[in-house]
UniProtKB/TrEMBL annotation:
This is MFS transporter. GO terms for cellular component: plasma membrane. It comes from the Bacteria. InterPro entries: Acrflvin-R, MFS_2, MFS_trans_sf, Na/Gal_symport. It comes from Microbacterium rhizomatis. The lineage of its organism: Bacteria, Bacillati, Actinomycetota, Actinomycetes, Micrococcales. The chain crosses the membrane at residues 20-42, 48-70, 91-109, 156-179, 191-215, 236-254, 274-298, 305-323, 329-349, 383-403, 415-437. Gene3D superfamilies: MFS general substrate transporter like domains.
Length: 454
């Protein structure tokens, strides 16, 4: 299949790189705020009961699974889109405002009977998940399309992951204080959270729009052969290496439990959600450092070796953290930092492996399916988050925690197990499928496929 390349002279490569990285930073500000603090907001400020939290957990899990299943559909729609802006960029333009609005509404649960609060939250959360799918799938596909050189692409992915971790830090460390500041008093209020999330969402999705204005896609959609659902899904199912990445990622959902439930755990363990700024800082610093240095690691070891090694090391660290206990916050922060190092490596190599698998399947079949292939990255991220929220939610229910109850040592220990031993087991399981990933370009041979790409 012959494709004509879109001239890249309209946007300087450096501008394209910076814009993609800034867009990812803004997007992650919004995503981190919602995923990290929504349970805290519902428990502490919307005053949802234990029974209500069981419903919330079910809503979030169902919504994320629905979103995850819809990701490949969205990816297929992207691959079949033809416009003067390309197949990926139009969705980035039109999804920014809905994501900002719905993110704010999630933190504006009205007072009233709990059943109506849950209905309001459920509707907003499902719509938010759909809107986020529309923005996230083409964003990752654009990285693969805009940067055809594997070495350059790996560098861009590492910076996107690193600045995504910095955004995670800004939101995790800053949002509780920002919400308190906007509450207008000594204590944080629900209104303070609503205002803080609204401002952060507008700024974050404003940055996200840079990915539309300052990037260009690799192929000219006007000359590319129109693809069908059948061709796209058949090509996807033939991509065995990609399927191994997906399976290994899903099994590694435990890596996200600290992010999903860490803010609640510190409330239970230490009595103040602000302590999560310390725990969050530890994991974020680790993720940033390893994200920036991952390309250097991939020059000396294969991607498969890096991701398997990080999984087993991560499991060991989680077990060590369990036996060290949570009573000493400094010791716990050290372990969290070290697990952050392994998570950063995992995230960079995961995205690089998917990008390489897209190139490999194009070489073998002549079909380039950035949209549906990169939709699997968002697919597994949502499944991992859904499973993390589900498992942590189950532990909340088992522990019997809700706002206003007397916290017991047994309650603290139950939740501590959920953020240590569960991730340890998950890391071990996730390593297995990566033994069957066969593309050498994911590691030190990253440039090898460049010569056979076309």
């Amino acid at each position: 299949m012959v494709r004509a390349a879109v001239p890249q002279s309209a946007v300087a490569p450096a501008v394209q790189r910076r814009s993609i990285i800034a867009a990812g930073f803004g997007q992650n500000i919004v995503l981190t705020t919602v995923t990290t603090f929504i349970l805290v907001y519902l428990l502490q400020y919307a005053h949802i009961s234990t029974q209500g939290m069981a419903v919330v957990t079910a809503i979030i899990t169902a919504a994320k699974i629905f979103d995850a299943v819809s990701d490949p559909v969205m990816g297929s729609i992207v691959d079949m889109t033809r416009s003067r802006w390309g197949k990926l960029r139009p969705y980035i333009l039109y999804s920014a405002a809905p994501v900002a609005i719905l993110s704010t509404l999630l933190f504006c649960v009205p007072d009233g009977p709990e059943v109506w609060q849950l209905v309001f939250f459920g509707v907003c959360y499902f719509l938010w998940g759909f809107a986020y799918t529309v923005c996230d799938v083409p964003y990752w596909g654009l990285i693969g399309s805009a940067f055809p050189n594997p070495t350059e692409r790996t560098g861009v992915i590492s910076h996107v992951r690193a600045f995504g971790s910095i955004a995670l830090g800004v939101a995790t460390l800053g949002m509780p204080w920002f919400a308190r500041l906007l509450s207008g008093g000594g204590e944080t209020t629900g209104l303070g959270w609503s205002l803080a999330v609204g401002i952060a969402s507008v700024i974050g999705m404003g940055l996200f729009l840079l990915a539309f204005f300052n990037t260009r896609e690799r192929h000219d959609p006007a000359t590319q052969e129109r693809l069908s659902f059948r061709v796209l899904f058949t090509t996807l199912l033939r991509n065995t290496s990609l399927l191994m990445v997906l399976l290994g990622s899903v099994l590694g959902f435990g890596r996200y439990i600290v992010q999903a439930g860490g803010a609640v755990f510190v409330v239970v363990a230490y009595g103040d959600e602000a302590y999560f700024t310390l725990v969050g800082a530890a994991i974020i610093v680790g993720m940033v450092l390893s994200s920036f240095t991952a390309p250097l690691l991939l020059r000396v070891v294969s991607g498969r070796a890096a991701i398997i090694g990080s999984s087993f090391i991560g499991a060991t660290l989680y077990i060590g953290m369990y036996f060290a206990g949570y009573q000493n916050l400094i010791v716990m922060m050290v372990f969290i930092f070290l697990t952050g190092l392994t998570l950063g490596i995992f995230l960079v190599v995961q995205a690089t492996m998917i990008a390489d698998s897209v190139d490999d399947v194009e070489r073998r079949t002549g079909v380039r399916n950035d949209g549906i292939s990169f939709s699997t990255l968002t697919f597994v991220s949502k499944i991992m988050n859904a499973l993390a929220v589900l498992v942590f939610g189950i532990f909340i229910v088992v522990a019997g925690y809700q706002s206003g109850v007397t916290v017991t040592p047994q309650m603290q220990q139950t939740l501590f197990v959920s953020i240590t031993l569960v991730p340890a087991l998950s890391c071990v399981l996730s390593a297995v499928p990566f033994f069957f990933y066969r593309i050498g370009s994911a590691g030190r041979n990253v440039g090898a496929s460049e010569g056979v790409r076309r």
